[in-house]
Design brief:
The chain has 632 residues and is an alpha+beta fold. It folds into three domains: 188 residues, Orthogonal Bundle (Cytochrome p450); 175 residues, no CATH class; 106 residues. Helices cover 33% and strands 27% of the residues. The chain is built from 17 helices and 30 strands. The protein has a five-stranded mixed sheet with strand order 1-2-7-4-3. Helix 2 crosses helix 7, helix 6 crosses helix 7 and helix 10 crosses helix 12. Its main location: membrane. Belongs to the cytochrome P450 family. Pfam families: p450.
């Protein structure tokens, strides 16, 4: 956390929170205001700087111009510009007897400008070249000026020599673009977006291409592999879209180049009202920064060679380059699910344009065998995955769900492992609490007796957890458990125990102990209570199993952000294993004689594709429990 002038800025590195931010569709999270203040002459007031309904309006106008069919139609334009660039470099080399020093950065900027000029301005592309010349001058002035004087309030409004140059160039660029727009008889509102599309595509494309060529020049083996692939596929012809889609080696190189040198190394967002991401409360007005370059070179994510150029990490596609999460465990098997950000096309960089590739795998921890990926799909929503078995047929199933906050409903999908086809089913009758709160990739339901079970709230409330912000908005009567029968794929609901008579200070959890479905929660921050449903689905069978005083666990108090998770009950029913999130310890508690043994959890690893392990994660311990006990 740091301050930039009077702006409080929080740098976010936790993957789950980053994912929650990038999938957030609420207009309460938007682009940081300093972009417009500092780079207003460059970025204007279009899609790159606007928020809310204004942003939605601009996106609606501009999006059709970037559909894949439109992009396919531009391949000839790119080829023509490439040929011009190739001829330019060839002439320079010939003029210097076969060896020449070439400033590729300058030439690639001219190349990207030429492509975008032809695409945006058509036969008027010569005017586009004039625009890029002025944009280059404007960018140089703005970027050097802001570092010296942007922190001084009102400085950009004073008629200094620098500001006069900026105003003059800004006026000339807008005048040129507006002239083209008027000639095409388009609405003037498109002028702002056209300017921003030109700026964003011109800069990021050139930067990405420059770094990619630098990496190829520094790694001759990969340069040879990529060249051989291109020659084999193209066979002397000008590449078309189908040819490009077959270039696996080149695609791996591009992905690795974008990982090491992202054209946009920082993503910033501003919170327009108090929000909560994961367990972090973010006050209104705070800026959130995601350091993309730092995440792309994090050894905990990418391994010990995170700083090395290794396109081989993308050999099986982008999805396999990322670690897995647990969707649940059943009958001795663990279901892993993973996602990967699709490569961001270096134009119109905005978090609502992100899409994800999701996939599933089954892992047997006893044999270390792991299945091939199944159930791959691409979506922009933040999905939660849960794993179970249809007891009537013995078929393993996964339920994927995504909360659509604007509609107060969910996108719910089911896949059977023997069919490998996702099917949409009816939405939840009530929204599961964890889903509306976090939208996490990790499982949030409990599998028991052929059903998946979620804790839910009857009336949708703000997703910020109630005890801090909305204590008056929730009553015990609103808590319910929603059940999905994996055989019939239908829902049911049942209420919590009658003894659940006070809204707990922290969210309750559901689980399985002693072959009984259970509910656990903190009571007045002094005790931990566990209820068991002796006959599953019968509300009258709720029985209070344990009420544990925190002093018995050798704790002086319950941490405000702590939660305890019951993991296992011994066969004799005397010893309970609890996981404490705050202290990251396991508690072996004998409730008959109150003996306690505390075990520190040093490392809890996330499983990746080949069954090995990657970065530490503390909150997945419950995902292994059923598999471990059944194997033993």
């Amino acid at each position: 956390m740091f301050s930039y002038g009077n702006i409080q800025t929080l740098c976010v590195r936790q993957l789950d929170i980053v994912k929650e931010m990038t999938t957030c569709t609420s207009f309460d999270l938007g682009k940081a205001s300093f972009h417009k203040k500092l780079l207003g002459p460059l970025l204007g007031d279009g899609i790159l700087t606007s928020n809310g309904t204004t942003w939605a309006h601009h996106r609606k106008i501009l999006a059709p111009e970037l559909y894949i069919d439109k992009v396919k139609g531009m391949i000839n334009i790119v080829s023509e510009s490439c040929e011009s660039l190739q001829n330019l470099w060839s002439s320079k080399i010939e003029a210097q007897n076969g060896v020449a020093d070439i400033n590729i950065d300058k030439d690639l900027r001219r190349f990207s400008g030429n492509v975008i000029s032809r695409a945006c301005f058509g036969s008027d592309y010569t005017k586009g070249e004039d625009i890029f010349l002025k944009l280059g001058a404007l960018q140089e002035i703005v970027c050097s000026w802001k570092n010296l004087s942007s922190a001084i309030p009102g400085m950009r409004y004073l008629p200094t020599n620098t500001n006069r140059k900026i105003w003059k160039l800004e006026k000339e660029v807008k005048s040129l673009i507006l002239e083209v727009v008027k000639n095409r008889k388009e609405k003037t509102s498109f002028e702002k977006d056209l300017l921003q599309m030109v700026i964003e595509g011109f800069e990021t494309t050139a930067v990405a291409a420059t770094w990619c060529l630098m990496l190829l020049a520094s790694n001759h083996s990969w340069q040879d592999r990529a060249r051989a692939e291109v020659l084999e596929i193209c066979k002397g012809k000008v590449p078309d879209f189908d040819m490009l889609s077959k270039m696996k080696q080149l695609t791996m190189v591009i992905h690795e180049s974008l990982r090491l040198y992202p054209p946009v190394p920082l993503m910033s967002r501003q919170v327009f009202k108090d929000m909560k991401f994961g367990n972090i409360d973010v006050p209104k007005g705070t800026d959130l920064w995601i350091l993309i370059l730092t995440m792309h070179t994090n050894p905990d994510i990418w391994g010990d060679d995170a700083y090395k150029f290794n396109p081989e990490r993308f050999a099986n596609g982008t999805a396999s380059a990322y670690c897995s999460h647990i969707a649940g465990s059943c009958n001795g098997l663990i279901c892993l699910t993973g996602f990967r950000y699709l490569p961001v096309t270096p134009t119109l960089y905005h978090h609502r344009e992100y899409k994800y590739t999701y996939w599933l795998r089954l892992w047997n921890p006893a044999t270390r065998a792991i299945s091939e990926k199944i159930g791959c799909f691409i979506d922009s929503g933040g999905f939660s995955f849960n794993f179970g078995c249809d007891n009537s047929t013995g078929t393993f199933k996964v339920v994927a769900s995504c909360y659509i906050r604007d509609q107060l409903t969910c996108d719910v999908r089911v896949i059977s492992f023997d069919e490998n086809v996702w099917r949409n089913i009816q939405s939840f009758p009530v929204v599961p609490f964890n889903l509306s709160c976090y939208g996490s990739l990790e499982h949030d339901a409990v599998f028991f007796n052929g059903t998946l079970n979620w804790l839910a709230i009857r009336n949708d409330i703000p997703y910020i957890w109630y005890h801090e912000d909305h204590p008056e908005d929730l009553t015990v009567e609103q808590f319910v458990i929603v059940l999905l029968d994996l055989g019939t794929e239908t829902y049911n609901m049942y209420t919590l125990p009658q003894g659940f008579d006070e809204v707990p200070p922290e969210r309750p959890t559901v689980g399985v102990l002693g072959n009984c479905f259970c509910l656990s929660y903190s009571y007045k921050e002094t005790d931990f209570i566990i209820w068991q449903m002796k006959r599953f689905g019968i509300e009258e069978s709720w029985t209070q199993f344990l009420k544990i005083n925190y002093h018995d666990l050798q704790l002086n108090y319950c941490f405000s952000n702590d939660y305890f998770l019951p993991l296992f009950l011994s066969k004799d029913g005397d010893t309970l294993i609890l996981y404490g999130s705050q202290e990251r310890q396991l508690f072996l508690y004998n409730w008959r004689d109150h003996r306690v043994e505390r075990i520190g959890v040093n490392v809890h690893k996330t499983i990746i594709d080949d069954g090995t392990h990657n970065n530490s994660r503390w909150n997945l311990a419950d995902g292994f429990v059923e598999s471990l006990t059944s194997i033993c």
